[in-house]
Design the sequence.
């Protein structure tokens, strides 16, 4: 099982810095999701910047979320 998210920090260019419970810091690129379904709403910069940690995953207003598994497996260590 992959670690849960503890902190999220939105960055420029539609990326987020994610800190996991195991202490790892990783960068996740949200851009590939911005053309898919409900995620198009995150093209609005204010909406994107509203990312927060909910139940170990990252969530945005309007019940948009990415699971901790996706965030961990598809992110790059920093």
Sequence:
């Amino acid at each position: 099982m992959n670690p849960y998210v503890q902190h999220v920090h939105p960055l420029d260019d539609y990326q987020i810095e994610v800190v996991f419970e195991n202490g790892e810091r990783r960068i996740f690129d949200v851009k590939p999701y911005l053309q898919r379904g409900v995620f198009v709403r995150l093209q609005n910069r204010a909406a994107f910047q509203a990312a927060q940690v909910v139940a170990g995953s990252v969530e945005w207003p309007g019940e948009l979320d990415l699971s901790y598994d996706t965030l961990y497996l598809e992110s790059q260590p920093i």
Remarks:
- The chain has a mean pLDDT of 96.
- Residues 5-77 form a domain with the NE0471 N-terminal domain-like fold (CATH 3.30.2020.10).
